[in-house]
Amino acid sequence: MKSKILLFLFVTCILLTAAFTQYAYAASTATVTATVTVQNISVSVSSGTVSYGTLGTNSSAGTNGSNTQTATNNGNVAEDFNIEGQNSANWTLDTANSTTDHYIHRFCTSTCGSAPTNYTALTTAYQALASNVATSGTQNFDLYITTPQTSSVFTQQSVNVTVQAVIH
C-alpha cells in the first residue's frame, strides 16, 4: 500500500508540474526585403554644337528650324533643367548690345518662329529651361544671338551655353 501511495504522489507531482509549467516555444522569424537605388542626375544635349558663322556687327542668327537643340534627362529621377550663357574672352553677355563688345544670346522653348519674339535673354546665372522632366524625357530649345553694335574684337568668340540638371 505504501508503494501505491508513493506511486500516486509521484504521478500527481508529475501531472501538477506539467499543468503549471510554462512551455517554451521556438522563435519565429520573417524577412523584410529591402532595396535601394542611388539617384542619378544627368543631362545631355544634342546636337550640342551651334555654329552661327561669321556675322556683321549688330547682326543676328538663330537655330530655329535648322539646328534645334534637345536636352535629355539621362538620369533615373525627374529633373528640372536650367540654362545659362557666358561671357566670351572679349565680349560681355548682356540684355542689350548697345555697349561696345556686349552681345545678346537668347533661348526659346516653344513658339520660336519669329525671333526674338518668345525668346528669353540668357544671363551668366542659371534660369529655368524646363521643369519636372521625366526620366528619358526631353526639352527642345532654340538659340538666337545678336552681335555687339560696335566691337573692338573681330576674332571668333566662344559663346557657349550650359544646361544644368537638378532633381525636381
Structural description of this entry:
The protein is 11% helix and 30% strand. The chain has one helix spanning 2-20, and strands spanning 43-46, 60-62, 69-73, 79-84, 92-93, 102-108, 120-121, 127-133, 138-146, 162-167. The termini are far apart.
Assembly type of the chains comes to single chain
With helices defined by DSSP (H or I, 4 residues minimum), what is the helix count?
1
Structural class: mainly beta
C-alpha termini separation: 91 Å
Shape: rod-shaped
CATH class: Mainly Beta
Summary?
The protein is mostly beta strands and 168 residues long. The chain is built from one helix and ten strands, in the order αββββββββββ.
Structure characteristics:
single chain; 168 residues; mainly beta; Immunoglobulin-like; seven-stranded mixed β-sheet; three-stranded antiparallel β-sheet; 1 helix; 11% helix
